[in-house]
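JOB MANIFEST
job_type = single_chain_structure
chain_count = 1
residues = 152
[input]
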Amino acid sequence: MKRSGRTAAMTAALCLVCSAAIAGEFYEKDGAAIRGYDPVTYFTERMPVKGSEHVTAEYKGSTFRFASAANRETFLAHPDTYAPQYGGFCAFGMAKGYKAAIDPAAFTVVGDKLYLNYNEDVRTKWQKDIPGYVGKADRNWPEVRKTTGVVE
């Protein structure tokens, strides 16, 4: 019990420090959602591609960067299709009931949705039961989205 209480206290302290990572509705790092990666390329190239600081768009209060003007226009035509699920926070963390940072390379596209994960190890866990974790994350998101802390 003492150990879990200590862990919870450390996580709460970490989350207070990290609350500045939420600017708009999406998790942002270095001033951009998805740490500056182009959300469209996850679908078109099946890989993360760094976006340009000169090709951007605002969506729900967050800045997204794009590798090309064409990708920006594609995104703006259907932002709900290309924006990552759960505000760009780790999908596995969301299934567990908290917001966590992401590694843009740790991703999964399922159908027409982009899911990001904290790192490759977490992505491996996530992929063992994607439907189950999506269900849990979908149920958790309405409440967790209101919280300000982020586990970095």
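[summary]
The helical segments are 2-18, 41-44, 69-77, 79-82, 91-96, 120-126, 130-144.
The mean pLDDT is 87.
exit_status = 0
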